[in-house]
Amino acid sequence: MPRKTSCKTRTFEKLFQQAEKVGFENVFLTDAEQGIVRTGGATPPIKAATIANRRYRGEINIEVFRGANRETLSRLSDVLADMAGRSKRSAA
What we know:
The chain is mainly alpha-helical.
């Protein structure tokens, strides 16, 4: 298995600035960045291991892509749609 390279996680603001330029469906998030988006940029964000565990248990059902080094990536538009769907279901 290839060695994981260290990549910097983007901030909440940088993610949405990039999404405005290239489109929300074209921005791919790592688990750490997905944790940042799910907390709305608050500190501390949800840890990447927590996101992976929730996906394994079926609590997060989003299409996953494999990037370089077999890293799991999710679309920003899918994450936002999942968050909106969960808030509507919990309010009912």
